[in-house]
Amino acid sequence: MKKLFFIGCLLLTSACNLPISTPTADSPLTATLPPSPIPVTDTQAVSSPATLEPLPLYFTEEFDAASPYWEFLQTGGTSAPLTSFQNGSLHVDISSADTWLVGVHNANPYLNVFVRAKTSATPTGSVGLICRYSEDGWYEFNVSNDGTYSLLLGQWLAPGIVKYAPIINDLSNKLTGTTTSEIGLFCEDNFLQLYANGTMIRRVEVTNYGLTEGKIGVTTASFAEIPMSAIFEWIQVSQD
What we know:
- By secondary structure, the protein is mostly beta strands.
- The protein has a single domain (4-16, 33-44, 53-238), classed as Jelly Rolls, CATH 2.60.120.560.
- The protein contains one helix and 16 strands.
- The strands form two sheets. The chain has an eight-stranded antiparallel β-sheet. Strands 2, 4, 5, 7, 12, 13, 14 and 16 form an eight-stranded antiparallel β-sheet that branches.
- Strand 10 and strand 11 (161-176) form a beta hairpin.
- The longest helix has 8 residues, at 4-11.
């Protein structure tokens, strides 16, 4: 039950045991929760993206202070995850099973972008990165410290309701046996490159999914076992 793909299966049992292939419109994974942004627990409420000052396209977020550019949204689960900026890290704590947290950085949209992060998580959940986030959907790369990883296409069906379509579900020894990893997601033209601890573990063509531009972000999720905790020590956004 610790496999990343199994998180989605828990949300809709009819979607379990899907093959590793291009998803179809009639085989979504869905997660539902009444719409509710997640508050940043040690700061003021997250600001609306319309009020934010421009940031450079490429930067490193080291979480030295609370940032109004982050917007956190929940899907699935019965209780809200807690997010906080503390000790130079972004902390996420989830107390309910089968709960997803999507964190979007609202500063800039990107065509091509390389997102990297240093993360750690308990065995009861997954962490990941997002690129090309927009109203049309986003790509989501999730990893677990048991070595499993997945690439998903996420789409909001309504506020608080997400459809996840599996693109890749696999295992890498670059992720096994460690609670702390450096992960990367390079979105370049019609391909996504997935990285774990400095090594590219997969290159995936995503021409058929049609996402060309959007924002970057992070993701965490809990499995059936709880609680789940995750830390992002830094996130780097670069051109290559």
